[in-house]
Write a structure and sequence with these properties.
Number of domains of chain A: 3
CATH topology of the largest domain in chain A: Rossmann fold
Distance between the termini of chain A: 75 Å
Strand content of chain A: 15-25%
Largest sheet of chain A: 6 strands, parallel
CATH class of the largest domain in chain A: Alpha Beta
Number of strands of chain A: 12
Oligomer: homodimer
CATH superfamily of the largest domain in chain A: Response regulator
Helix content of chain A: 40-55%
Order of helices and strands of chain A: HHHHEHEHEHEEHEHEHEHEHEHEE
Shape of chain A: elongated
Radius of gyration of chain A: 26 Å
Structural class of chain A: alpha/beta
Strand order of the largest sheet of chain A: 2-1-3-4-5-11
DNA sequence: GCACGTTACACAAACGTTTGCAATGCTGAT
DNA sequence: ATCAGCATTGCAAACGTTTGTGTAACGTGC
């Protein structure tokens, strides 16, 4: 409906090509006077560029797509902020599309939505693609990068924390404070990330000469409910003095369930969360955490797809943030 | 780079037009045999449709855009879920773009990102547009609808809760439980939404014959910090027995600050949150809330822009959800 | 055998932009 | 006067798709 470049051309008395050059600011290709005329005409007509047409001929766009797996993961926010900030630096726009929660059909839908238009690149936030969909993505010839997820079976670019270190340092942190009965709650063992965390945990325990009881590692899906269930399984008279929540949400689940069981945190039980999102500061006691640098992941992701380099798998740093949920044992 | 419709045509030995019809499933325009041939060829070439080209000629797309004002608002999730669910019913895809936080420049950027391509419609989640940007939006001739925000000064379609009722019912709830000293914390008076809530609050108090002290209404921006500051202002020896948090986050701020001041919730102070997102269940005690139906807002928003009808301003229901943060006074 | 419908396809225009190339006019040097 | 070089602009092709129109081929009923 809106005015086109031709309308402007007519109004300004120049050719469409010239209008295009002026609007794209291809300096050196037109006189200052013409520039003024064209811009005035464009403004008068309320011109809005038709990007579809432009993308059709240039075969590239300035939008980068972020695919997120669920609206529920609270750590998506800082990643997206990082993506936005870095993208704006490169004068790129960001669109986000949701891929549901482990639903291959929704994943496919999200993928085709972005692949069918010439997006510059694709960032996948913590989404675990089905084999079909991964192939779809790879065949699209668009630069992509996974964020906050890692793989051992396939060779794709990803940026994440060192999950083994996450597990190891979390455990070390508690060991150093005198704990020996340490649980790991709500962790997933189906995917690489979870397996790595468990592995780091086991290594730290082994180095400390502690034999990990099977019930100490409670599997789950990182959710609040998974944390609750884990704590329920440990029980009120658990031998554990500390629990590592596999995520912030899981840790909060542990916290609340512990309270239901009559345990005081951190007096009776220490809790260490993994992630370090804002939620750690919202609950009481505030949860100490092994914090990931999600913002940096977003930034690094944009850099990676903008200028893919040799090392396509990168690690962002983690750090311990002490709050109030860990007690030092004698 | 990818295969085009012409490549398929050549391979299948038909014309591009026919290929287009087959792929668009315009049944009746081709024989079963041709259909098979074309589909086989498309598969073999790994054909991916170029939506930009299609949108160029049809002048419409099947994507609807959601503009959200910040990654921080936690109620965006259920709205987006509602949007997704309803959009998928209509076979529409959803893209989300962030408009920053009250930054006109970022708003403009987000707007042009979506306007420059033929999106079907635009949903604005709780974003308060500057005058310029509103005009930009309106001049784009794309159906739009504001969600979770209301206006009294301009005439635009929006869907939200009845904010006056929110304030009124929240206050009523506490009055009915015997409270008379009731604060309102973290509410914004610059925009319609906040003013309405305050107005509902005042009306309920007046009906109960209670004179509202100026300090009882603590203004803010609905944030956690605003809640904290409000509670700080009330002080440990406040005359209030109950506080309404203007949002969940504000309520949590009130809760934690109250605890810092040595007040027990709900024993010493009752708290009622407004919004009712998942965060109410995460903290201890779980916060009772006047809950908005955000999911429904998303659904209604998609319906509104899909089939705009006469009444362009709609109200979604609210309800009281009792948890553990309100004490009944004698 | 003819008129008429139907089916199944090809043809070509159109969408709004970008961009290589050609054309024009001008400047200044030869 | 001629010409090279440059600045400025117009021209037209191209991007990949959709869709209205044209047209064969093939019945069908008389």
């Amino acid at each position: 409906m809106g005015a086109t470049i031709k309308d402007i051309a007519k109004l300004a008395g120049v050719s469409p090509g010239t209008v295009s050059r002026v609007l794209a600011n291809k300096t050196g290709f037109f006189s200052a006077q013409t520039g003024e005329k064209v811009r005035a005409a464009a403004k008068e007509l309320g011109y809005q560029k038709n990007t579809a047409a432009a993308e059709l001929v240039t075969r590239q766009s300035n939008v980068i797509a972020a695919i997120v797996n669920s609206t529920k993961t609270n750590f998506a926010s800082p990643i997206i902020e990082g993506i936005q900030a870095e993208a704006h630096l490169h004068d790129l726009n960001v669109i986000i599309v949701y891929a549901g929660d482990d639903d291959p059909e929704q994943q496919r839908r999200a993928l085709t939505t972005v692949i069918e238009r010439p997006v510059r690149s694709i960032l996948l936030l913590s989404v675990d693609l089905s084999a079909d969909n991964l192939q779809l993505l790879q065949s699209a010839q668009i630069p992509f990068c996974f964020l906050s997820i890692s793989f051992d079976d396939i060779q794709v670019p990803y940026i994440t924390s060192d999950d083994w270190q996450v597990g190891y340092q979390a455990t070390q942190t508690l060991l150093q404070r005198g704990h020996r009965g340490i649980g790991l709650a709500g962790v997933d063992s189906d995917f690489h990330t979870g397996r790595q965390r468990v592995s780091g945990y086991r290594q730290a325990m082994q180095e400390a000469g502690i034999r990990v009881q099977p019930a100490w590692v409670q599997l789950g899906d990182y959710s609040y409910a998974a944390g609750q269930q884990a704590m329920q399984a440990y029980g009120a008279d658990t031998a554990l003095t500390a629990v590592i929540g596999a995520s912030d949400m899981a840790a909060v689940g542990v916290l609340n369930q512990a309270r239901s069981l009559g345990l005081q945190v951190p007096t009776d039980l220490s809790i260490l969360a993994i992630d370090g999102t804002t939620i750690c500061d919202l609950v009481q006691p505030a949860l100490s955490s092994i914090s990931q640098n999600f913002y940096e992941m977003g930034v690094a992701g944009v850099r990676q797809v903008s200028a893919p380099d040799d090392t396509s798998q990168k690690i962002t740093p983690i750090k311990l943030v002490e709050r109030q949920s860990i007690r030092r044992l004698k």
